[in-house]
Amino acid sequence: MSKMKSPNMFLPFTGLFSRLQLKLFSYFAVSLLAILLIATAIESVVLNQLLTLPTSTQEHLQKLAHEAKALLEKNDIEGLAKWEEQQDFTLYILDKNQHSVSQREMHPHFVFKLQYMRQLQQPMGDRVRKPLIGIPLFDTLNADFPLTLVVQLNADLHPAQQLSGSLWLIRSLVGITVLFLFSSLLGRYLIRPLTHLQMGTKALAGGELTTRIAHHFSVKEPEFYHLATEFDYMAEQLQNSMQNQERLLRDVSHELRTPLARQEIALHLLEKQATAQQMPLISRFKDQNEQMAKLIDSILRFSRLNNTNIDLNPSSFSISSLRHQILRDIEFEAGEKQTIQWAEPGEDIPLYTDSSYLISAIENVLRNALKYAGQDCSIMVSCWALDETLRLDLQDDGPGINKDELITLFNPFTRMDEARHSSQGGYGLGLAIVKQSIKLLGGEVSARNCGGGGLCISMSLPLNLKCPSV
Description:
Helix content: 40-55%
Structural class: alpha+beta
Distance between the termini: 23 Å
Number of strands: 11
Subcellular location: Cell membrane
Enzyme class: transferase
Strand order of the largest sheet: 6-8-9-11-10
CATH class of the largest domain: Alpha Beta
Number of domains: 3
Shape: elongated
Keywords: ATP-binding, Cell membrane, Kinase, Membrane, Nucleotide-binding, Phosphoprotein, Transferase, Transmembrane, Transmembrane helix
Protein name: histidine kinase
CATH architecture of the largest domain: 2-Layer Sandwich
Radius of gyration: 45 Å
CATH superfamily of the largest domain: Histidine kinase-like ATPase, C-terminal domain
EC number: 2.7.13.3
């Protein structure tokens, strides 16, 4: 495998995040501009239609126009002035030069608003509370120049008063919709590469050391491409480190096994020639030689479980057959005053998983209990199925362990009692192997002290193994 150089060698880091910040600023600026433009367009198309005077108000103003027209036809200018003053609206009849026919004085603000006068059927808008509405009249005094009835709409009759809540609701919905669209585009731009990074991280954490993600990214996205190449560089370094570690363990184990085998042969030869006084010393050497061989086997086994991909071989079997196989072997190792009771569930539980790793994990816990719970102890195993999950509790009545040590109980080379482990040949790898074995099967393991004394190891794993390999 060719070695990957660090991405810093060929992709400069300077300015990457300034470009990303510029892109983000551009996205937000465009989205804000789009919100304003679309909101304005919708207001002119939709909202203005909602701001048209209701039919009842239009009819009322048309009625006023007919009354004014009748007074004009009678040429009753004095009556016209009184009629204007008596109305609920501020109104005037203006000629083409916007002078009052009745000679009544107009307020300057009214005169100013004449330039924004609207027709009866036009939308009123929502910027002026009292808009002016012009209704053309036929001038009986001078047929060549029509007159206009100009009415200042009362604020309480403005359509915006009834639609004030709706106006803000529609504008808010427009803003939220546009913001959602641009957020989706921005999220797609950001989340897609982050998803690849997340999947790669999970795969790498799951032991797939060949995981690489840079091919999912384009050099047109330098900030993410740089991050992906850094990830690939890290993954390659990790892979090389793990391979070197495994190679070292294999070489060391081979170098250790060779002299151990020679020592074993030498001890067998010496045993045949040794005197009665020399036999205890030879027996001690043999025990230490055997313990060293077991330690090497445990280290290699834990290393394989922890550092490499393992092909599992799931098969179908029942919990009763598993129980029978484990008890047949473990009860043979139990002392005279040590008992193991495995309560059978009400109904047999079918399993589809790798039986070898499950058996190994349960046997390791039971052997650990036989070693450290005492010469006169009782071990209770209970199991049940709940929500497609097998749960196992393995409880002894020994002294238990300190509460603070429960957290590190499954760490490799953890020893709760140095003197006890040394006297009984423990190296602190048994429960670490249990944890890794159950993890391979998609489960978890935990420990707790029982209320009446003793330690309880709990396992939970799926009844049906989902993935054939991890």
